[in-house]
């Protein structure tokens, strides 16, 4: 599957080269496409394209085995015994996804999850002495050749947490 998209997180986007999307169907409610549906169009060059939601395109990318886009993710490192970590779990995933980020929750007690993402944590905190509870590390391609782009440490109210994540995203965008 090939996905070439003009994308703005949490908004509608244009997906190009969707001739291979034969399994997609159009879903209409009241004459309009639903967010999960898609309506193919043909451009002036005879190429198929479609307009689908950001979340649906992300789902398609994640389901695809042949094409994994570079994804920006927030990895939450926390402990089951941490009260602040538990409080933030009521909104941290939602805030991250609203900002168009993949959210990965790693409890230090979950040995398989910790083993999978340990390299990322130890790159940022080699001896783990300065990490906060929880620690959110933002990185590109967490499943492969990752690059850390920022972090948010410690507990924060929902609005402040969103602002801190947005600051990291803005500083990343300014560097590119």
Q: Which sequence of SSEs, written as H and E, runs from N to C? A: EEEEEEHEHHEHEEH
Oligomer kind = single chain
Helix content: 25-40%
Q: Mean pLDDT, as a whole number?
A: 74
Which regions are unreliable across 5 or more consecutive residues at pLDDT < 50? 1-38, 62-70
- What is the tally of beta strands? 10
Report how far apart the termini are.
Answer: 27 Å
Please report the number of helical segments: 5
Task: Let me know the largest β-sheet.
Answer: 4 strands, antiparallel
Rg value: 19 Å
Net shape: globular
The class by helix and strand makeup works out as: alpha+beta
Proportion of beta-strand residues = 25-35%
Biggest sheet strand order reads 1-2-6-5
Can you give me a brief rundown of this structure?
This protein has about 180 residues and is of the alpha+beta class. The protein has helices spanning about 55-65, 85-90, 90-100, 110-125, 160-175; strands at about 5, 10-15, 30, 30-35, 40, 50-55, 70-80, 100-105, 135-140, 145-155.
Tell me about this structure:
This protein is of the alpha+beta class and 176 residues long. The chain has a four-stranded antiparallel β-sheet with strand order 1-2-6-5. The radius of gyration is 19 Å and the shape is globular. The N terminus is likely disordered.
Main features:
4-stranded antiparallel β-sheet, 10 strands, 176 residues, 4-stranded mixed β-sheet
Record the SSE blueprint.
Layout lengths: L3 E3 L5 E5 L11 E2 L2 E2 L5 E4 L5 E6 H10 L8 E7 L4 H6 L3 H7 L3 E6 L3 H14 L10 E6 L6 E7 L4 H18 L1
């Amino acid at each position: 599957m090939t996905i070439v998209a003009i994308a703005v997180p949490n908004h509608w986007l244009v997906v190009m080269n969707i001739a291979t999307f034969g399994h997609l169907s159009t879903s209409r409610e009241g004459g309009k496409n639903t967010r999960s549906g898609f309506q193919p169009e043909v451009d002036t060059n005879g190429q198929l394209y479609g307009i689908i939601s950001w979340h649906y395109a992300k789902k398609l990318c994640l389901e695809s085995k042949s094409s994994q886009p570079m994804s920006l993710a927030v990895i939450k490192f926390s402990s089951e015994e941490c009260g602040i970590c538990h409080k933030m779990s009521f909104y941290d995933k939602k805030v991250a996804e609203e900002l168009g980020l993949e959210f990965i929750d790693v409890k230090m007690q979950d040995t398989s999850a910790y083993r999978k993402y340990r390299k990322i944590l130890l790159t940022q905190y080699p001896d783990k002495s300065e990490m906060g509870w929880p620690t959110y590390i933002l990185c590109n391609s967490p499943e492969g050749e990752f690059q850390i782009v920022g972090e948010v440490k410690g507990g924060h109210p929902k609005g402040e947490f969103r602002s801190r994540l947005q600051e990291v995203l803005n500083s990343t965008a300014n560097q590119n």
